[in-house]
Amino acid sequence: MPRRAANNPRQVRSKTCGCKLCLTAYPPESHGERKPRRDCLGAWQARYRDPTGRQTAKNFTIAKGGKAAAEAFLDEVRTAVRQRTYRDPDRGKITVTKWWDEWWDVEQKKVATTTRNRKLGLWTKYIRPKWGDWRLLDLEYMALQKWLTHELKGWETQKKTKEILVALLDAAIKDGERITTNPAAHLEVTATRQTKHPDDAKPPTAEQYALIHAALPVYYQRVFRDFAYETGMRPGEVAGARRHCLDEEERVLYIKEILVFDSGRLLRQERPKTEAGYRAVPLTPTAWDAVQWMIEHWKPARTRSAVGDGTALHVEELLFRGPRGAALNINNLRRPWRKACDQAGVSRKVVNPETGQPEWWPRPYEYRHDVTSRLHHQGVKEVDAQRFLGQKRGAKVTWIYTHESEGAREAVRAALTSTGGAGSGLRAVE
């Protein structure tokens, strides 16, 4: 082990001091006349090596304790280095934007395309304009909380933004303790969570669906009425279905990948929305006929191209396509659907209270609500419905996708107004 330097801490020569050593280092003829003095006014410099072996120094002026402060600092730092608790204070001086660039380079590889774009959008719109130029060590809890409360509208926006901040600053702690504590860890979401009335979340009735399907172009009736309405598959799953995923003997379609939009560009995603999305969807006779019609019309190839093979979608393998042969996407699905809903007199425009953006009801996604309710009313077990829909949480199948059956309200009204013989009606109990 190298011997510790005998002149550590040492005094640094000063251009304003008039002691003998400072006058020698900075002669009067080149640095101006100074009054001679015996004691030096220069700062005391404490030198040390960090855990990587890099030599670092810190100066202490006479006003800030001089030699005594430098020696105390050296004792503290040497102990921290020896006990592996040392933290370089300069590492926390990195700006939030620069740290985001380092963190995001890895983080974006962990999540799906839609999740990545949502996080990047929150960073670009909310976090970077406010905190991008701040240093990590200058962030404080109360400033973050006031910003979250007063400048971010909507429960979902506050919640997701907080999650990004917590993860970003947690990574700074793990990376050699750029900061010692996470000021975002205890942020509270203060916005009120908006919930829809059950009637607003219900899917269209069978009569409304019949009107919508009748207004659709004949080609899209195959896609919506004959297939999506029968399977409850997500639009991206329908668009991404390929010939090699079809088991013609069992009449089952395996969900293995989806098509998603990424900044206006359609691409393949090698996994569904969640791991529960990997599943086998049994096809009804109507859905099977729709698949056979598409196979006869487009003659999709049975090849199995790899996801990530350049940027090619390999449209020649897709079971379902647009009328002109292009891959299905949110635009060429939404246009005919919304037009048919308008013609059927079913459309309803609702403004989201959190975002202020208009939303249209119904959406093709409402098929999942309808299919779940039909399965529930037919007595299909919840766990089976969950697997069929590719839902990760069973509670979502029960509380979000399942709706009351037709005639349920009349049945309840009849039960409550029953005035038959003893024991036939409802009675109060203590």
UniProtKB/TrEMBL annotation:
Domain of life from the UniProt record: Bacteria
Gene3D superfamilies, per the entry: 1.10.150.130, Intergrase catalytic core (1.10.443.10)
Entry keyword set: DNA recombination, DNA-binding
InterPro entries membership: DNA_brk_join_enz (IPR011010), Integrase-like_cat_sf (IPR013762), Integrase_catalytic (IPR002104), Integrase_recombinase_N (IPR010998), Tyrosine_recombinase_XerCD (IPR050090)
Entry annotated with the keyword DNA-binding: yes
Pfam families found in the cross-reference section: Phage_integrase
Protein name listed in UniProt: Tyr recombinase domain-containing protein
Species: Streptomyces tremellae
Lineage: Bacteria, Bacillati, Actinomycetota, Actinomycetes, Kitasatosporales
